[in-house]
User: What shape does this take?
Amino acid sequence: MVGEVQKQPAEIRFAEELARLAASDPGPRPPGWRLSPRAVRAFVTGDEARGVTRKFWGDDALVDRCIVSVMGLQGLLLVGEPGTAKSMLSELLSAAICGTSRLVVQGSAGVVEDHLRYGWNYALLLAEGPSARAMVASPVLTAMRTGQIVRIEELTRCPPEVQDSLISILSERTLAVPELGEGTEVRAAPGFNVIATANLRDRGTHEMSGALKRRFNFETVESIRDPAFERALIARQLADRLADHPAIPAPAPDVLDVLVTVFRDLRTGRTAEGETVAQPSSIMSTAEAVNTVHAASLAAAYLDGGPLTARHVAGQLRGVVFKDDPEDGRKLRAYVDQVARPRARSSRAWAAFCDGT
Amino acid sequence: MQDPDRKDLGQAAERLFSPGRGLWVVPVRHHSPACAWALEALIRDVAPTHLLVEGPDDFDRHIDNILDPGTRPPVAIVALTEVEGATTLRTASHYPLTAHSPEYVALRAGRTAGARLRFIDLPSGTFPDSPTPAIAQPLQDDLPFTSGDYIDALCQATGCRDGHDLWDHLFETRLGTGNWQEFFRDVGAYCAGLRQATPPDARTLRREAHMARHVRAALGDGAAPRVVVVVGGYHAPALCDPESVTQDAAPGAPATSYLVRYGFAALDALGGYAAGLPLPGYYDRLWTEVQATGAAPAWGATALALISGHAEALRKDGHLQPVPILVESLRLAEGLARLRGRPGPMRQDLLDAAASAMVKGEASDRKLWTADFARYLRGDRLGQVCRNAGLPPLVADAQSRAAALRFAVTDSTPRERRLEVRRKPAHRAASAFLHAMAILETGFARMTSGPDYMAGPDPVHLHEHWSVAWSARVEARLIESAALGDTLPSACAAQLLLDYETLEAEARRGDLPLRCRLLLRGLLAGLGGELMPLARRLAQDIALSRDPSALAETLRQLNLVAVTRGPLRAPAVLDIRALVSAAFDRLVWLIDSLPGLPADDLPSAIDALRLVNAVLAGPGGEALDAGRFAAALDRLAASRVPPALLGAALGLGALAGRRTEAEVAAAVAGGLAGMDLGEGRSALLAGVLRAAPAILCRNGPVMDAVDAHLARIDEPAFLELLPELRAAFSTLTAQETARLATHVATRHALGPAETTLDPADAAALRKVLDDLVTQGLGAWLAQATGERA
Ligand SMILES: Nc1ncnc2c1ncn2[C@@H]1O[C@H](COP(=O)(O)OP(=O)(O)OP(=O)(O)O)[C@@H](O)[C@H]1O
Ligand SMILES: [Mg+2]
Assistant: This one.
């Protein structure tokens, strides 16, 4: 996703807020936690009085449940459609709870058991034989030792037998290291837990075993329900991304409206007036909306040298979001004809949007 | 929203209690156990001489029955109000009382204290504002507690999810603790805020004026009266100073009202319309607990009991919940409560916890589980009313009919009944009663097997088999239908009319047969003349219909009624014959407009023609003017029509003997050999076969033409024709199929082996014929001959 690599981890980006929260946190802290559960919640959902910004928009009860989940002995598994901020939520929670969001395993078909347990430095292994020094700890093992949170991204992309190596870690909270002598094991320090994210419906994912499922509490992260929220969020994230381009002005409100409406219509398959719309297979997440308007802003400023219009948005939409699937292209056309054109009669922004497709 | 001023709110709260004037205004929320608890203590301390409760003042006559030892909540007072112009002429408003309703607790405590008990709101005839016929309306108004900017802002500030959660968080957490003075002062301040944020409308002011009048009267009654006024928190600020409320009230008429048993399920549904706390079973449990211990509920133990109770219920349904999941639920509930700053898990914490721990998958399953847990928390208790409370007329009527037909109404054991509806009038009467109870969806009776009356004469099922069981739930359902009518037949007729209106509102295409079915259901229920309004509506809709296939099916149904001597028989007043004629007339009229039909609608229009033809040929058909139908078809054939329609007109004409088969055969042959004008060459033949498949069985000129054509054409052309042939064969009866097979066999000199097939083996033959059409005639013939050789 755009910009991801150029971003600092949450604990650095929000270091000041975390420090403020820690300083004014009277609540008791669960063993191994840097903050009390309430301060963690304030970090995620914001607390104006303490100058803490809201970072996750939407279901606050979900955040409560996640925090309480992590306090226990079940892992937390965040599932849901792409781009619903599962990874972001996991990053924020780990940063607030244990001070680091950087103990991460990125799930993929290439992940092997070593990535979840430990590997060896073969030079040392050959020279000295199995020793603690020759062991290369996985993020999971590190988190167990230090009593921190390990994040496993896209858990269901790992092969099933690799996933299953988490079962004993989650239930026994120990990791046996037979190579270092019989009975050698690492016991998890208080504060250790797993926050995983997964997409249950994507292609290329593997069904989790029942045994592993039982060791997780599932939480479904849904797309933002309130259009006004979504709009505000997009505006803010766009501003963040354009911080390095001070010459580019903020987008006009009607352009943002068109953007949000198009994404919501296509995502839900239904307009606010109740008309049904063919849903594209492309992902119409908030994150994609940000990508789209970001690219459109750059195009408007540097290619056209003018302000951002809905025409630019439409152009990016076609080029970025609908690039893969010709069938999606048809659906977008149908949407423009049935929904956008009638709106264009009374709105210049919508007219520009139709122009651009 | 105006920002409610803290000082104002505090002052409003201070004004609630003026011992000096002998007035205590108590702000409550309906069905709140915390309010009930504090109110009980208040009444004990104050020992009022007068206890006034918000509720229509004509309900006073129910107070003794409410407090009778034979009455056990949940109960409700149902008021039936006449409404001008609506279908059902009445609407029912419900005033429910649970064991934990502050109003109920107040009445009991007031009686113990020896106070005069009175309801003080406008008479029930003035409720509700906007009647929706036959849908239960709550009399208590809870809206300000659940919506509005004030509530939203407080939710934001406290991290609560909605108004209910907020109320729980602020007040139910205090259940069984502290003193009533502080509790009601806080409720009072909270409600004063509600009122500032949502100013009262004119109606509310009228109600408050009326209530104030009662309060003034009580204050002037006797020496040193001590008056306790129990009202919804929103009204409290207005009643603290009853002298200043001068609006003149226009008291309406009282309605007819009954004290009835009520259920948690109905109460929860009513809660959906905003009348108090949802999940009554949950709050009832809290209440029972504080009553038993005299102290705050042990929240953790309650959570444990609820979670394991639900698991128990699930186990009975065959869903086993592993113990670790229950442990995790409980841990989550406790953790969430602590995170949210509550003394222990409340309703929302329990629901959240259950959802987190129980669901191993995505949100859609979550809703299912949460709903199941919510249902468990809702509970399904039914209350009981004392004997002399009397029954609403509909319930009494249904009960006496049931008793007369010897159905048990005293216990709820399911019983089987076999009814010989065609032979025994008493059985027919019982059947009508059961059909009627089914129309009201009482759950009293279920037909386990029996004739499908709508499908036509059924020689196999002669008797109806029912499973019946009277239960409190049946009664509850009848109470919900109380507005529809005082007798079972009139209530059923009103219900059918409502169903009819629902269909009208949905306005789905081609739903005329569905509307007609309502009439038939009414006939089965023995409603007879009560169905007049429905029949009139149906007649209008028939006269306006533009849908030939819907009309034809309606014609078929109505004709069934016209000719039957069985349970569908209609009384003469309904004049079913006239309806049949109306449907027929309209169909004949529509035939002339068929040529303009869109191509997609042609097949169903042709089916309609065939159906009309079948009705004309069958019983009852003699009463219709077949000549007019035939003449219309002739006109159709003579006009410029799509070939399929032409084929249908010709085929039906031939069947009716109005034209020769040779004429049809010539047209078919011409169509097959002629130029393809877009519909396919076989369109005309397809029309013939679809409308008059029997013509093939006559083995005459049409068959010759088809046969000759089949012999001539190549594979692709054959494949083009295949679907129509298949469809045509599938409409033949078993005998016709057999006859056709014989013709095919003899024509192609297949010898007698196939021709001697017993028609009873028709199923096997149909398969052979199917193969014939799927594999191609030639291949099949070759194979069949080869086998013989
Ligand atoms: N409810 C929300 N609150 C705040 N930001 C959101 C929300 N929904 C989406 N976003 C934005 O979308 C971005 C995408 O989030 P993220 O990559 O965490 O999604 P994801 O669910 O992990 O997606 P994927 O399934 O593709 O991994 C976030 O970084 C954030 O900027
Ligand atoms: Mg992710």
About this structure: Residues 227-356 of chain A form one domain. Chain A has 17 helices and nine strands.
